[in-house]
Amino acid sequence: MIKINLHHRKAAVGVSAGSATGASGVGGIKGFIEKMRGAGAGVDGISDGEKRSLIILVVVYAAILGGGWWYLGEKKTELLGDLDTEVAALDSKIQLLTSELNKTSGYEKIKKSLESDEKTIRTKISTIQELIRDRSTPPKILMTLSESIPKEVWLREFSLQSRHFRILGSCTGMDVVSDFMKALEETIYFKGVVLRSSRQDTAKGGHVTASFELEADRR
Known about the structure:
It is built from four helices and four strands; from the N terminus they run H-H-H-E-E-H-E-E. By secondary structure, it is an alpha+beta fold. It has a four-stranded antiparallel beta sheet, covered by helices on one side. It is rod-shaped, with a radius of gyration of 62 Å.
C-alpha cells in the first residue's frame, strides 16, 4: 500500500497559490505588505530582490508625492502672482477713473459759474439796449401827445412812471376831453385811456371851464 502525505502538499500548494495571487492581484507596496502578512514573516523573511523592488517603489512614490507638492506650490505661486497683477491693474484703473471724475467735477463747477456769468451779462446787455431805445422814445411820446391835443385843451401836468401815464389838464367843455381820449387811443404809445376825475369851474367873466385827470398805459 502506498501512502501520500497530503498535508505537506496542501501547504505547498497553498503557498504557491498565495504567491501567484499576490503577484497578480495586489501590486506595489500593498502587494508586498499583503504577502508578508500572508506568509507571517517580517522584513527578514523578504528576499533581496523583493527588498530592492520595495525600496524602488518607495522611492518612486516619494518622488511622485514630492513632485506633486512642488507642482501645487509652483501653481499656487503662479496663480497668486497673476491675481496680484490683476489687482494692481484694477487699482490703476480706479485711480485713473477717480482722476477723470475729479476733473469732470471741476469742469461742472466752472461751467455753472460761466453760465451764471453769461446770464448776468445778458441781463445787463438787455437793460442797456432797453435804455438806449427808451432814450429816443420820450421825445416821440411828447410829439405824439402834442399832435393829439385839441385846440380847446391845455395841459397842466404830464408824467410817465413804470409805463403808466398821468395827464392833468383843462378845457372849455367835456366834449373835447372825449375827443382827446379817442385820439390818444389811436396812437402807438397810449392804450387803456380812462377818465379818473373831472370838475367844472367858473372863471372870471362867467366863462365855464372844466378840469380833468386822465390815466393810460404805454403800449
